[in-house]
Amino acid sequence: MNLIDTVNDVDARHLTKGTVISASGVSKEFDSGTTAVLDVDLDIADGDFVAIVGPSGCGKSTLLRMAAGLEAPTAGSIALSTDSVGVIFQEPTLLGWRSVQANVELCAELARLPKSQRRSRAAVAIDAVGLGGFEKQLPRMLSGGMKMRVSLARMLAKEPAVMLLDEPFGALDEMTRLEMQNELLRLYTARRFTALFITHSMSEAVFLANRVVVMSPRPGRIAADIRIDFAYPREPELRYDPRFTAHVAAISETLRGTE
Ligand SMILES: Nc1ncnc2c1ncn2[C@@H]1O[C@H](COP(=O)(O)OP(=O)(O)OP(=O)(O)O)[C@@H](O)[C@H]1O
């Protein structure tokens, strides 16, 4: 399932107007007996950028996988108002024998879009992630950051209304990570998709999101839902703003309080 970005077909009933993702009383107990997520209620409005932070193993990925339709809740329900969904994981999961261009076109190809449309969407997406000129390269010729850009472009080429991102920058070095955050924010500012973004980094969450949801240790529940009211576009210098630092400190404090 990790090989390509996926489209889900999760039940879209029970949604109130303007809500794009709605989780109601969602729990997940695996067959092993582990309860990963417990009684989560979460409504995400159209155009919201929601980051989820929480201790390792608290059920963040499980929640995202349920939103993507890759796992079913064992209690409650999770609904999306659209089937225009792109999912991106920590590993870029590119096909090694396909060029950058062919990797970016993959989802459009699977969706049987005509060649001309595939080409034009891929060209726009490749340009948007700053990979113009690398179209013919194979993944093994690219750095980790470039591979993640290809992965991002592949998702953008689908032009999804909802993006589910599971620690997409977690494996990158600090410099590349900050660059990718700037890039993603630029795209978000231009396109205003709805995003659910999982991260371990509190500063990444505050920089990107307009809401940061803090989860408790397993079984993961929502411990806090914090609004980040910096306007978009956000400039890299925001990271040095005392209000930014205060948000990060408050989230850190909240996380400590859940232990
Ligand atoms: N398929 C599975 N079968 C059994 N247990 C699982 C499965 N997937 C996840 N778990 C367990 O559920 C819990 C939550 O896992 P999950 O990956 O959702 O946490 P996470 O918050 O994303 O962790 P991390 O921050 O380390 O990536 C963990 O204890 C994990 O071992």
Automatic annotation (TrEMBL):
Residue ranges constituting the ABC transporter domain according to the UniProt record: 21-242
Keyword Repeat among UniProt keywords: no
InterPro entries: AAA+_ATPase (IPR003593), ABC_transporter-like_ATP-bd (IPR003439), ABC_transporter-like_CS (IPR017871), ABC_transporter_ATP-bind (IPR050166), P-loop_NTPase (IPR027417)
Gene Ontology MF, one: ATP hydrolysis activity
Gene3D superfamilies to which the protein is assigned, alphabetical: P-loop containing nucleotide triphosphate hydrolases
Any Pfam family matching the protein: ABC_tran
SUPFAM superfamilies: P-loop containing nucleoside triphosphate hydrolases
Keywords: ATP-binding, Nucleotide-binding, Transport
Name listed for the protein in its UniProt record: NitT/TauT family transport system ATP-binding protein
Organism name: Williamsia sterculiae
